[in-house]
Each structure stands twice: as structure tokens, then as C-alpha cells.
């Protein structure tokens, strides 16, 4: 028996092609404890779930689980958590207004899912000048330039791997913190995800073996629903989130 926690609201999960409505319902059945509603509006099927008005981190996690499970089966436009779509006739009008853009987006992500690739590094500054013997200006310059050069080599290797596997890549602006040296969202064919992950994790993190100050680590997250590569802002008015960011912030 599913226990409800007071008043509920609709959490819109995804918009898919109307021809895929059967698969949308199948994914809904995978999460048997959820109250799902699948509706068809013209060329589109819309998946929604009922959640408590005072939803928490568990509801966010479930939203992402449902969205990711659907993305691995059919092309879909994922809706960010807690973004209601227009109701009733307004929804139909909105979908109809953007029908061609949404259908093109569904075709673009067919058979694909999103991965997040982050290279995090702590590249400390050079050692004090007094640490070096007189006449060793080269070693001092190496302490300035070496870590960045090695980080650039790792980034170049990651870009090469993604290109070899045909990934579509959107590089993200780096936060003001110096913890990150590379951050990207990648659209990858679902059947290639494991190979892409293995190839990325095989990249040697050179900085760790040079003896230079600092260290690096490479993280691959996902597969996620393709938030970065679908125009859900046409429906929600919200900008594109980075897949998995909401969960990472909630778990911090």
C-alpha cells in the first residue's frame, strides 16, 4: 500500500512522442508504488507523477530515476524537477505551438543518453622561491606552468575520447572555485555508454605522477536524461540544468 503525505501536486517528468505511449506506460509500471498519469496530446505523450506538495530529496531522486529509465528506452524531453507544465487546453496549445522543435529534439536524442564528465583538480601555487637553490629559475617556472600543462593534457585526452566515440559535447563554464579544470555534458549512444566510461577512466591523470604540487580526479556521472540537449525551456520557461546537479547539491 502506498502511503501519501497530505496534499499532492503533479510532477511533470517527460514529454515523448505519442507513438511511444506504450513504452511510457511500461516505464511507469517499473515504479509500481508511484501514482503515474500518462496523457496523449496530439503528437505527444506526457508523463506525470503525483507527489506530496511538501516533497523532499527522496522525491527528487525518484524523479531522476524515472526520467533516466525512460531516456534509456525512448527519445524524450525531460522536464526538470518541480516544473509544472501548463494545464488543460494551455498544455495542448503549448505543445502544438512548439511541435516541430520538439519532434526534431526527440529525433536528435533517439537512442542516446547524457553523461556528465568532470575533471577536478587542486593545482596549488608554486613553492616559495626560497625553496629553490640559486640559479634554478627553470624549476620555479616549471612549478608555475607544469600543473596547468599536465591538466591541459588530461583535458585533451578526454576530448579525444569523446570525439572518437561520437559524443556530442557541451562544455560547461567552470565555477569560481579552482576545484574544477573541465566540466562537460555529453550525449552518447546508449549502447556505447560502458565503452565511453571505460575509455575515460583509463586516461592517466598525469599530475598525480609528476611530483608537482596538486592532484586531479576524473568523474563520470549518469546516464541521465538528456536535459542539456532538449529544449524543455520551451515548455517550462526554465534554462537548461546540468544533469545530476540537483542531486549533487542535495547530497552535499
Structure explained in plain terms:
There is one protein chain. The radius of gyration is 22 Å and the shape is elongated. It has eight helices and eight strands; from the N terminus they run E-H-E-E-H-E-H-H-E-H-E-E-H-E-H-H. The longest helix is centred in the middle third of the chain and has 28 residues, at 137-164. With 252 residues, it is an alpha+beta fold.
Q: Which descriptors would you attach to this protein?
A:
252 residues, alpha+beta, four-stranded antiparallel β-sheet, 25% strand, elongated, disordered N terminus
Overview in brief:
The protein has helices spanning 21-30, 57-71, 89-97, 99-108, 137-164, 193-201, 233-236, 245-251, and strands spanning 8-17, 36-41, 44-52, 76-78, 112-122, 168-171, 180-189, 215-224.
Order of strands in the sheet with the most strands? 2-3-1-4
Order of helices and strands: EHEEHEHHEHEEHEHH
Q: Strand share of the residues?
A: 25-35%
**Termini, distance in Å?**
32 Å
The averaged pLDDT comes out at 76
How would you characterize the largest beta sheet?
Answer: 4 strands, antiparallel
Relative helix content? 25-40%
Count of individual helical segments? 8
Structural class: alpha+beta
Low-confidence runs (pLDDT<50, min 5 residues)? Answer: 1-5, 125-135, 208-213
How many beta-strand segments? 8
- Give the overall shape, derived from the CA principal axes: elongated
Global Rg: 22 Å
